[in-house]
Amino acid sequence: MKKRLQREIQQNISVAKSLNRRDFLYGMGSSLGSIALAGMLPQNLSAASSAGPLSVKKSHLPQKAKNCIFLMMEGGPSHIDTFDPKPALNDLHLQKFTRSGEAKSAMESGTRYYVQSPWKARQVGKSGAWMTEPWQHLANVADDICFYLGCQVDSVNHPTALFQVNTGNRFGGDPAMGSWVTYGLGSENQDLPGFIVLPELSYPQGGAPNWGNGYLPAHYQGTPLRPKGSPILDLKPPKGITAEHQRENLNLLSRFNHDHLEEHPWQDDLQARIENYELAFRMQMQVPGILDIDQEDDRTKEMYGIGDDDTDPFGRKMLLARRLIEKGVRFVQAYNAGWDSHDFIERAHGSRIKSIDKPIAGLIQDLKQRGLLDETLIIWCGEFGRSPDNGVRDGGAAYGRDHNAKAMTMWFAGGGVNAGHTVGATDEIGSEAVQTVHHIRDVHVTLLSLLGLDDNKLTYFHGGRFKQMSQFGGQIIPELIG
């Protein structure tokens, strides 16, 4: 190691001698940084040799939550038809939409109309939280939930909005929230990925960058489990190959890779590849047992809706999420698609709500009875909300809602949130957030803080500056914290 550092320093000196005065002064900042890096590198390498990149790290702040389950409703669920009902729309139903400021776009795209919710709403739990009629099971755990009605985002385009909610950046390429969390905290199980994703059969718009590591080292990217067939391809070794054979092959490959790494120390993706081979080997021992939910008793499976055609797919995801968290996985994200209801919202949203209502309520109840809810942060959201108006076809029978970046409902449970409260509000027709209004970056900062991470300290040097999830800083939303 000393020889390698001496060689690099000598190379830097040779380069410096070839520079003129102007180039030398221009490069002083990076040169000083290189000297500091050379001083820190032996310490970092020494630490890395004794602990892997996912080893548990000390939090910046007192932790209210140790891990996170992020429920992403892809397509943009309507706040008006779920947790933020608007009775004023009943009197406006199918009347022409006349809000000034949108008149031009309305004329360009055809006549638009106000549309009411197809369902009545009622208050549930001691907290009196509002829910529409299809939520039958979640109503039973309403007092464990903090509803937030004041969130806003910047985009009404699915891929860019998904990127922003997942990574903080509308244009992709940045680390996902799960990547930041595992980078900051590590994982409690070194035999499993720290960040696991449970996608639909078809990936969300924007694809895998929604759970990518971005500019963080590759160890922190999300690992998707396939919803059908083998969750991880090639999890089992080929016939006739024993664990001893694999171990010998990995040892030989590791020697070759480490020799190459000595000559190319800047290729951190090679180090990640080496560690991923080792992790994959260890996962062969751990993963099959974790994925086998048939080990659970019938009562537990029924609690999640497993065995029922409507709820079985998402119920299995929720039960698996609990098992993964229980085994020390730091961050699990589960997707549920089909929320982009531009028409036939009663049929489309009704089907989506039915598919997740019992599984999510079962997850909260199960975590609570196991003593895990207090240390597990659950997040529920889509990429944006929906509008109080839409174009109407078939005499109004096919009405739905368009995208809305200015009014979006999220909710949180467990992990130190202000359970049993509704925070924020939208205007009387649900068009825009008007109370406790915050951009999604402030939500990110708040959620990181619940996990013990300070957004201003959770940084990574890339592209000439220290970057953070909020992009340029944000503020904690105190009303969301219990």
What is the compact description of this entry?
With 482 residues, the chain is α/β, with parallel strands linked by helices.
What does this structure look like?
Strands 1, 5, 6, 7, 8, 9, 13, 14 and 17 form a 9-stranded mixed beta sheet that branches. Strand 18 and strand 19 (about 465) form a beta hairpin. This protein folds into 2 domains: about 1-50; about 65-235 and about 285-480, Alkaline Phosphatase, subunit A (3-Layer(aba) Sandwich). The chain is globular and about 75 Å long. The model is unreliable at about 15-20, about 20-50 and about 100-110 (pLDDT under 50). It is of the alpha/beta class. Helix 8 packs antiparallel against helix 9 and helix 11 (about 310-325) packs parallel to helix 12. It is about 35% helix and about 15% strand. It is built from 13 helices and 19 strands.
Mean pLDDT: 84
- Percent helix: 25-40%
Taking the sheet with the most strands, its summary is: 9 strands, mixed
Q: Can you tell me the number of structural domains?
A: 2
Q: How many DSSP helices? A: 13
Instruction: List low-pLDDT spans.
Output: 15-19, 21-50, 100-109
CA gyration radius, whole angstroms: 25 Å
Helix/strand layout:
Elements: H1 2-17, H2 21-26, H3 28-50, E1 67-73, H4 88-92, H5 103-109, E2 113-114, E3 121-124, E4 129-132, E5 145-152, H6 158-167, H7 177-185, E6 195-198, E7 223-224, H8 243-263, H9 268-291, H10 298-303, H11 312-326, E8 331-336, H12 345-369, E9 376-381, E10 385-386, E11 389-390, E12 403-404, E13 408-413, E14 421-423, E15 425-426, E16 433-435, E17 438-439, H13 440-450, E18 460-462, E19 465-467
Parallel strand pairs: 1-8, 1-9, 5-14, 5-17, 6-7, 6-8
Antiparallel strand pairs: 2-11, 3-4, 5-13, 9-13, 10-12, 15-16, 18-19
Helix pairs in contact: 8-9, 11-12
